[in-house]
Amino acid sequence: MQLEFFPSRTLTVYLAKLFFVRIVAMLAVLVLVLMMLDLLSTSGDILAAEGNGQAQLWTYVTLRVPQLVARFLPYSVLLATIISLITLNQNSEVIAMKAAGLSAHQVLAPLLLTAGLVSIASFVFNERVVTHATATLSAWEASDYGPIPQDTGLRTNVYLAAGDDILAANTVSGSGANMTMRGVTFYQRDERGMLQEQVRAERATYAAPGWSMTDAIRFNVQTAETTMAASATVAPEVSPEQIELSAVNPDAQSFWHLSDSIDDFEAAGRRTTELRAKWWHKISGPLSAFLMPLLGAVAAFGLARSGQLFVRALIGMGLGFTYFVVDNAALAMGSFGGYPPFLAAWAPFFLFLLIGETVLIRTEE
User: Fold this and answer.
1) Tens of pLDDT along 271-297?
2) Phi then psi for 270, rounded to 5 degrees?
3) Which residue spans traverse the membrane (predicted)?
4) What burial class does residue 12 get, using C-beta atoms within 10 Å of its C-beta: 0-12 exposed, 13-18 middle, 19+ buried?
5) CA 347, CA 327: separation in Å to the nearest integer?
């Protein structure tokens, strides 16, 4: 019985190279197809903005592709696992390895090593590339695909409670007394929460207190009358400091930056459950690629001539996709406070790690 976890160096390199090539191939196919479908649905909106053309379409592609790579890399690892193991099984290579005395875990060890390296690369890629692309794309979408804002402190889709009223803005730039809102809407409500008046303006600046809206359009809900005003001051309860703590997009912040944002929220007495769950998921999300070879391993063992190879591949694929469904559901529950943040991010990973090990041991027996 061999005590080493990995097989021979030659076999390890062979399996790792085989697996890595298929991961890259599956990722390229998925990203290419999904990017084409995405462009079909968004190209009209991009070209509708004045001055936009082919260059802006390519800009959108460069910003969207990193998001697709980050999201579908674990799927690519799962599909590459199943394709690689089915090929090895059909060519009787798995039988040869087991006949040489290798256990199921030793056969999978090169694949797990490759998937682990892919997980590390995915984490670095998310931190260095995806967060910046997400922040830029969110700001561009908030500007209706107009000129991309260059302000790195730009916040998008700000939504704030001002007592019983609501203040919303498409973008917020600057800080402190120099803060400026674009695409501003103020909803005035009564004590029952019913909408009384809506005030809209293209621009608003801090008036200390309140926010001065230029060329405001007032709509009275009860009388259905629309009036124009040169300026209107609203939301005196909302300060620039509250806005700086309100518009945190965890997908657009790196792991360490999000950690600082969580500390700021906790110091201000704000709820951090959703941010904390996303913070943990920045680790568990990329690490899901490491889990895929274990979930897809059921396709490797069992005789190809038994007629059950296709069924085994479906079982492996079903286990992998079920993990992603459970992971998204747990993360949503963590965001709503149904699960503790750590449990929401890590429970699916450890649950399916145990399931994968159980299926692998039962299959080997």
Assistant:
1) 778 888 889 999 999 999 999 998 888
2) -90, 160
3) 12-37, 68-86, 107-125, 283-302, 309-326, 338-361
4) middle
5) 8
